[in-house]
Amino acid sequence: MSPSPSLRILALDVGARTIGLAVSDPLGITAQGLDTLRRTNKRTDLAHLESLIGEYQVAEMVVGYPLKMSGHPGAQAEKVSIFAEELRRRFGLPVHLWDERLTSAQANRILRQSEISIRRRGQAVDRMAAVLILQNFLESRAARSPAPGENHLD
Asked: Which residue among 56, 84, 89, 139 has the highest number of C-beta atoms inside a 10 angstrom radius?
């Protein structure tokens, strides 16, 4: 019998000025948004992430990977890839890059349909994008997992 998962996954939607954040529930089923991190400098940003990793017992991270619509990486994807490598080195956790194409557009659409004011919507879009990145990652992982009782051979 395998131990039940109790460690969480932290998702990041990395931008130049902010980092949208979301964390999974302990079972890895749902994503919940956290307060958006206003970036100041690398040391402060990493210290904030370190405190979240401890607080939520994070076992792995998912970072939104901003591919171009063609599916090819551009300048921003390269920056995110370098940041993800820094996270791996600093925290010693698995860090997954996850295709985030259309996530911000989807987040804006969801928030536009809500009753949130334009000002508050702008503050919530990074968090919502991180939630969508994490939820898509969790759903993809669940779809690949064997059903209980099945043998999974790789």
From this structure: 84
Q: Determine the straight-line distance between the first and last CA of the chain, rounded to whole angstroms.
A: 19
CATH number at residue 37: 3.30.420.140
Residue 52 lies in a domain: yes
Q: What share of the chain is helix, strand, coil (3-state, %, to 5)?
A: 45, 25, 30
Q: What's the whole-model pTM score?
A: 0.83
* pLDDT per position as a tens digit, 9-37: 999 999 999 999 999 999 999 999 999 99
Residues 103 and 129 sit within 8 Å (Cβ to Cβ): yes
Closest CA to 100 of 66, 125, 132: 66
Six-digit token string for 80: 């995110």
- Residue 37, number of CB atoms within 10 A of its CB: 21
Give strand pairing partners of 8.
58
In whole angstroms, give the CA distance from residue 8 to residue 20.
Answer: 16
Within a domain: residue 2?
no
Half-sphere exposure of 65 (CA within 13 A, CB side): 18
